[in-house]
Amino acid sequence: xxxxxxxxxPLIPRKLLQRRPxxxxxxxxxxxxAAAILLLxxxxxxxxxxxxxxxxxxxSRPREEPHAAAAERFxxxxxxxxxxxxxxxxxxxFSTRITPSPSMFFEPASSPVENxxxxxxxxxxxxxxxxxxPKESAPFLQEPMSSDSTSSSDVSSDRVLPPDxxxxxxxxxxxxxxxYAKKEIASAPxxxxxxxxxxxxxxxxxxxxxxxxxxxxxxKVYIYHDGAKPIFHSPYLKGIYASEGWFMKLIEGDxxxxxxxxxxxxxxxxxxxxxxxxxxxxxxxSNTLEPLSIFVKNYVDMISAxxxxxxxxxxxxxxxxxxHDWGPYTTKLHDELRKNAIKALCNADLSEGVFIRGRDVSLxxxxxxxxxxxxxxxGGKPALQRSILAFFAGQMHGRxxxxxxxxxxxxxxxxxxxxxxxxxxxxxxxxxVQHMKSTKYCICPMGYEVNSPRIxxxxxxxxxxxxxxxNFVLPFDDVLDWSTFSLVVPERDVPRLKExxxxxxxxxxxxxxxxxxxxxxxFLWHPKPVKYDIFHMILHSVWFSRVNQVLQVQ
Length: 554
Fold this sequence. Notes:
The protein is α/β, with parallel strands linked by helices and 554 residues long. It is built from 19 helices and 10 strands. The chain has helices at 14-18, 20-41, 50-53, 66-76, 112-115, 173-186, 205-218, 242-252, 274-281, 290-306, 309-313, 335-339, 400-408, 424-427, 432-437, 453-460, 497-502, 506-519, 534-549; strands at residues 221-223, 267-269, 318-322, 342-345, 361-362, 388-393, 416-419, 439-445, 464-468, 487-488. The strands form 2 sheets. It has a 5-stranded parallel β-sheet with strand order 1-2-3-4-5.
């Protein structure tokens, strides 16, 4: 090998020349060791060629029968071995202007609601921080495949649909799968009398069933491993924000949908916790979410710089799951995250310009008291044994609850049991949960934000939810017909609440209560996920959103 040295070559001792074979062997071992270290240090993620990263395009694969190839993959999926579980999480490699507090390395303290013992679902006293987010007017596009034209399940009757999806920079086999799935769902065969799916609960049970089958057969999710605990890869499984933690726990332990190879993925999961963001980065008394927003922006910038997958679709095939009230507002500093990514949010409020209907997913807010027994205490009295017409007890958060209390609280009314906090003289005879299990209609007014854990709690206790929250997109609105098992009351009609409830025929109430019991299975967390449970329903909503948004490269 030629040498290019600026100084004359030094003389080599005779003894060293005599041992030249040994020196060469040692050098070879050193080179091999260095190569092995480099291979071990290299990321397992496969990336396209340098030309692709520089803005070029991949050589096109034969595309004569893309849908046939996708159909073949779907047909063979049942015989494929389970995907490997993701490797242990790695420490973050990105920098941020945020200095984490020492508490980042310890178990986060429980929020006030988790220590509240009268079981009245109190939300923690977070400041009502809503930093101005840019609002956009979304053009009306073709209705998503899930909808039928006869029902509307959110308080706002406006169906504002998402802006045009981004066209990917290059096409992949995953895109072909999605295009195939979209056509298959659009021509779904008629379903009737399915033993596991009760048709009246769904907007279109045939479309849901076919979409769910395709999800089971095709969907692959890649989880980014970058990011340090506790903000990343640290599911918090207790309290009112438990939905995001349970989803994180179950998806990271999944062996059916998760893949190691991102080139096979249809979706990319950003595994951070909005609850942990608030606990570790919010400065009490500061009244600003800027540190949280900067942290999220820096993380997404790191992902898009390190890997090509975000840039391929500008984030359209990426998603995160956030149940904390502040989840939507932490996206405001990253336009592509806010506009393009699929946001699964408990705070699904159409009025604030962050949640995009038809693209984003409304996440159920589930209150989990015991992570070891997430199904503990569910059930309630039969419909005809419920003696209380309406019940609510809780703090006076937000704009709706004070109005509710002013009109219906403190009255000697056997029909309307409305309290700010459940009085001790009442709890001696009947506690909070017993009230819900004995009530026909459980009142679920919004608090600081539109969602409330009372909605799912009512379903757990087989009480018909009465939802009072204008502009709220209800969970799984893409597939479920909420009018069959709940009642949505506009905020302006709170003074007429008793009249509205008494006007409902007994036969309709009995049917709705029966439907509550049937829909309950779709809102239950299981330590090991089961078909059609809440984990699969959330994942399906994300999958269904992605299928609806997919575009083929021209």
